[in-house]
Amino acid sequence: MNRLTLILSLAVLLLTVTGCEKEEYGHYAIYGNIVPSPSAPRVGDTVTLKVEVLDAGHRIYHADYIWKIDGAYYDEVRVTARNNEKTIKEIPTIKWVPTRDGYINISMSAYFKYSMPDENGQMRSSNSAKGTIKVRPKY
Fold it and tell me: Which of 41, 92, 127, 137 could bond to 101 as cystine, CB 3.0-4.6 Å?
């Protein structure tokens, strides 16, 4: 009886150890600041806007990035992950030419589709980044 109990205990232990794989879930990307280049633009300069990516997310296969400048729609970029990648790694930058000086509010909203559900069973989510850029007069 002791031998049978030992064998059954070892079998249960072996099944427990081999059956515990880490579950994967999709999760949204986390963003930091919107960074302009050049950092102190003037009216008429071509400015590249980039968002700092703090966490690229996981299992994001498709994303729509919508940019707004002073609350008005500016541009939309759609990205799909390449076949050999598990998630979209970088978000696209956009170019913008300011037409007035002063403080300009910039926002980027991202809408994600996952290739597997998140921990709540959802296949979609969103996140955003915001920033204010000071544009100097042309001269």
Answer: 137
Sequence ranges of the domains in the chain: 25-135
CB neighbour class for 103 (10 Å; exposed up to 12, middle 13-18, buried from 19): exposed
Q: How many CA atoms lie within 13 A of 25 on its CB side?
A: 11
- Report how far residue 29's alpha carbon sits from residue 108's, in angstroms, rounded to the nearest whole number: 13
Please give the CATH topology (third level) of the domain spanning 25-135.
Answer: Immunoglobulin-like (2.60.40)
Question: pLDDT-based confidence at 124, cuts 50/70/90?
Answer: very high
- CA-based nearest residue to 127, from 28, 56, 55, 25: 28
CA atoms within 13 A of residue 134's CA, in its CB half-sphere = 2
pTM summary value: 0.79
